[in-house]
Amino acid sequence: MIELENVAYSYGGGELLSNVSLKLAAGSFHFLTGPSGAGKTTFMKLCYGELVATAGNVRVFGKDTREMDRDHVADMRQNIGVVHQDCQFLDHLSVTENVTLPLLVSEKGSTYNPQDLVSLINWVGLGKRANASPAELSGGERQRAALARAVVTSPEIVLADEPTGNIDWEMSQRLLSLLIELNKSGKTILVATHDLNLIRAAKSQVQARVLRIANRRLQLAGAEL
Amino acid sequence: MKAFWENFVGLLRGDASSDRVVPPSGFTFNLTAFSAGIMAFLAVFAMAFSLASGRLADRWGNELARSSTIRISAPADQMAAQTKAVMDVLATTSGIAFARELTAEEQQSLLEPFFGPDVPVGDLPIPQLIDVIEDDTGFDATGLRQRLAAEAPAAVLDDHTRWRRPLVRAASRLRSLGMLSFVLIGAALAAMVTLAATAALSANFQVIKVLRLVGARDVFIAGAFVRRFSLRAVMGAFAGTFVGMGVLALMPSTQGAGEFLTNLGFVGAEWLWPLLIPVLSGAVGYVATRMAALRMLRRLH
User: Fold this and answer.
1) Nearest Cα to Cα of residue A103 among A121, A125, A80, A78
2) To which CATH superfamily is domain A2-224 assigned?
3) What are the Cα distances from residue B121, in Å, to A112, B116, B145?
4) Which of A48, A214, B82, B96 has the fewest CB atoms within 10 Å, i.e. the most exposed one?
5) B17, B21, B213 ranked by CB distance to A88: nearest
6) Contact A92 B23 (CB under 8 A)
């Protein structure tokens, strides 16, 4: 699915990630943890092509992101659902319209069943907020709307960057259960979080690997990979 | 080129749902429509000016080229004989369609602008003028001058060449100036639309970023903005064009002396030409916005 091989990323003269190697197998569930500023978001951006590695190779669905042209990057993103830390909504559109954005920009929109959309909105618990503006949503509702948008095209991979960063514990649990449900349906999940309680809660429900970024390196459960 | 035409057809077809991703009208969109309207209004006048200059150049070139004047400056007692001799020469010269002596009244009307209406022209020793119109084959001016010198020494042929050429050249340059103005107006419109589009794209950078993150191709994102701007440019240009055409249609008719200088407007089928201005404005808006959008998108991976 996603494979990083000796990847490094530098910005402004400083190296943020160094010699990172990892394979995300299909259907796996990974947590990516580490202190703030360790490079979790940079790692996620490398995975969906918003950043390009300064050294090493990032392969997504078998293709090196550095060799992809702009259209290929766009096509790749249509097959990766991303829940961004700050959600990234278009405020002039309703929740439903934001959720369907990935359908609109891809060729999948014309074949999408409207009833499936209703089911998806209800699945994330936003049935009564479907026509609201993103600005009217609470933090938890925004994250759930972002998750709905991430999975509306039924992507094989879902990346979530600090999805529970600004929401209370109850809402975090609810979001986690949605991610676990997705994983059980076969999706590959990578969640970046600094919330260890969330990881503990997940480990009792799903077989997840925990990755840690520290000192620019990626480690698995405390041991260097 | 093929992609350009596919996109252009897509522009005309439109896509209401994808256009929704661009936030509702801001001042930059209204600025585009306003600029296009003003530019179209000016373009109508530049076009009318160019066409009127062209008509003037053609008229001076064609009509005056076929017209000549013979001036007979003879003593009063020889005037009739010299005039008859000239008419006889003209009657036997090939290439002349028509020749006639100007009457005393006609010669007085020619002098009237300079001396006023009450000047007793008959008492003045003014030359007799003969108006000569050549046929399609034309006459040999050098040969005619030689014959006149032999048979009517007081007659001088003036084929208007000396002053016709600079006038035709001046009118042709006016036509070129009108066309240049038209092109410059188009360039100014392109610059204004580019500025407005760049401002709108900068203001909507977050929208573009989000669309790119959810997997939109550049052509989709650019297309949504291009449609919005092109349609605004077309709408503004339509308004400006019709106002300009209306103003020209309402200009007072200037038959007679004034017509020479003030016949600015369109004649017959020429009224269809300004309808191209909104189409051209749309094309300018399309190209300018597309280039600005793609330039902006290159900042994002």
Assistant:
1) A78
2) P-loop containing nucleotide triphosphate hydrolases (3.40.50.300)
3) 95, 11, 28
4) A214
5) B213
6) yes
Residue holding tokens 């373009």? B43
Amino acid occupying residue A10: S
A74 phi, psi to nearest 5 deg: -60, -45
Whether residue A74 and residue B21 make contact (CB cut-off 8 A), yes or no, is no
Q: Is A117 on the interface with B (CB under 8 A)?
A: no
Q: Which of B20, B217, B218 sits opposite A93 (nearest CB)?
A: B20
Measured between CA atoms, how close is A92 to chain B, in angstroms? 6
Encoded tokens for B149: 């010198």
Gap between the Cα atoms of B72 and B87, Å rounded: 11
Q: Which residues of A touch B220 (CB under 8 A)?
A: 105
Report the side by side order of strands in the sheet with B96-101: B96-101, B128-134, B67-72, B155-158
| Chain B touched by A97 (CB under 8 Å) | yes
ipTM attached to this prediction: 0.87
Which amino acid is residue A147, in one-letter code? L
